[in-house]
Amino acid sequence: MPAKNFHVRQAAVSALHAWAQGHDYAESLIERHAQRRKLSSPDRGLLQAILFGVLRHRRLLDHWIGDLRDGKLDPETRDVLRVGLCQLLILNLPDHAAVNETVEAGKANVRSLVNAVLRRATTSRKRLLDQLPDLPLAVVHSHPDWLYNHWKAAFGKANTLALMEWNNRPAETFFRVNPLVPPPASLPGTPLAGAPGFFKLEGPLPTALLASGALYIQDPATRHAVELLDPQPGERILDACAAPGGKAFLIAAALGSAKNLVCTDSNEKRLPRLQQNLARLNAADATLAVHDWTQPAPTAWHGAFDGILLDVPCSNTGVIRRRVDVRWRLQAPDIAKLVHTQRQILTNALPCLKPGGRLVYSTCALEPAENLCQIEAFLAAHPDLTLHSTREALPFRDATDGAFAARIGWLAE
Question: Is 364 one of the catalytic residues?
Fold first, then answer.
């Protein structure tokens, strides 16, 4: 008979295979495979811990596989071994469960190999862990060499080490209280200093409060861009890259309603989720539209907005703790491509700003090329603009997700 919970390990192996094929992001794969196998809540939690653990520590796990077993491995067998070693050496699950149930997740013709490697790992655990100080830092903390070297040049070795350690820790959950609906009688968390309205969640997700719109799961780093934008009641505001709606919700909260808020996204398929989120949060009055801001804006929008938020597509290097697969999907040339796209969006959104209006550009990236360097280059090309202020959140310094925001306006303002 198969081991009791081998289907969780099978789900992890299947999800890793789908991820390697580029079919979806890790977060979506958790839900899909949990539903497909009708996993209980604890088993879903185990699936997430294993899948995220493998993706966070993938390079180190592969090093250990090479240490414990000579020769080539097919991709599926490698994923089975990654799942097993992650449980043994990262998650510290009981040996019998990690070995026996992972062996059952492999195909019949490789189970003896998987069993041998995992049992060898249990007897070699101390040696493998003791060798960590002798390995390159990018291997120990499972980041690509190019990204490690890139950050080391930008932030220094000590900060880069702290950043990689941060990326490999499970993310805490924060929520924002919704001022557009009556407040709940009690809140399942503790308030965050310096971030009014934000709380650190304590205990399980408050599903009823989330469903009612009283709370919204949101990292406090998201507030920086909206606070710089400083929407005022009666103003007309554009959130140009709005889906899934977290910053649009903050704008609506500042305005007191969403009736003067226009939300756009380049992908029509993302609008239903945006609409659902805003409706749940009592911000359904927002106007939604599809627009690709790498293209010129409709003439009707020219000079129409007091404030514009451009939360542009970016490398996501400030949120790797949450988006665990970013480090493996992102390649060095991608940053230059993103910088070009960001510049197009800035250029095409600018004509929509009213005289005296302000535009806030924001990313969840850590890369100077996407952040301050981007803004400085844009201002150099537009001498009629001025930089009012910037905000930057760095995980290794601020213990939040990484974020950058810059407020610019007309020079005569």
Answer: yes
